[in-house]
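[Solved] Which block belongs to which protein?

Original post:
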Amino acid sequence: MRIVLITPEGPTKRTGNRVAAMRWARILRGLGHRVRLASDYDGQPADLMVAVHAWRSSVSIERFKAKYPTLPVILQLSGTDIYDYLHRDPEPTLRSMNLAERLVALNDYAPRVVPKHLRKRLRIIHQSAKPPSRPRKPSPRAVIVSVIGHLRDVKDPLRAAEAARLLPPASRVRIEQVGRAYSRQWAARARAEMKSNRRYRWHDDVPAAAVRSLLARSHAMVISSMSEGGANVISEAAVARVPVLASHIDGNVGLLGADYPGYFPVGDTRELARLLERLEREPAFVARLGKALARRAPLFRPAREIAAWRRLLKEIGHP
């Protein structure tokens, strides 16, 4: 089968959408299909469109459906689709969703916000991660807490740095952040934070190997987003057995589970600081986080994601 996989351009090739699209392309090729990645649909023949992001891919979806009204579209709903554009700009977002034969979301709580008439089309596919090639070795010199994600408003990216300021003077917690700043303002804020906060270091955009290396020496990871569709970095952390401290939002709870012990309210610096202090001082708390992650880790196995895509293609008549 000829598949065109639409993923809109971002400011870096390591956006969450782009990374997911590249992995799905590998999965679909492994299932025997020919896959062409594009930022928009140019009219070339295809048997199926897989589109990332309802709002950003709306023109491509309409163009494909106008040319091939009987051929299927599988639409992956991003976090900004279901937690932002569905309310802020519903017309193109809903049009894309209505045109698609199947919708894919990345976290178990997504059905709560997808319109009722579309829920029968919705399938949850958890993003997978490969186990690390080397054993995890947390740094012995400091309590390294990683923050992995681009610096933009929705990520609330400096929350961990601000929480680290509230820790006792003797604390060994250090915040190590990687990810590209989406604006000059965010870059300036990160540099200013480094100058005034001895516990914080921003490394800018780094290759995937450097991200894995950071996770391997981390004692924990913080994801402080105000909104997420289902961050692959949670999959990576769970598979690597790196404890996660996460903002209590649907996109995180839908991956980590309602009973996960490492949540803090969105934007709550003091509560995150309290969790960081527990992480450093309470081995029993760290063990609880580890056990909870171990229960969720099977969700993120590559074989499970491959099987989900195989089932989805079979549903639309393309085994």
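(Second protein starts here: sequence line, then its structure tokens.)
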Amino acid sequence: MLSSDNLATCDRCHQPIRWTITAHGNRQAVDPAPHAEGNTAVYTDGAGTTKSRRITDEYPLLAYEWRAMPHAATCAAPRPRRRTRPGRRAVVRYQDWRRP
């Protein structure tokens, strides 16, 4: 189930990570070991690609998946938050942004 052939290292905290492909085709780093409190289901498809998806009430963890924690939640040196451009404020709600 878990192999060490697709392990990588986080560029920021230098901890091991496992790259997955999400249901939308994006890359997502997860911690390589199963995590009891993780919110991501990880599995390897028939082509050998490690895939991931969010665990929800509608789509619970399946028998062939293992529970993982996204590495962004546990990284010791996370990426800085994006800043808004000068002169712009962050949009919190659409109603606050739109013009009357």
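Accepted answer:
You had them paired correctly. Confirming on the second one: The mean pLDDT is 85.
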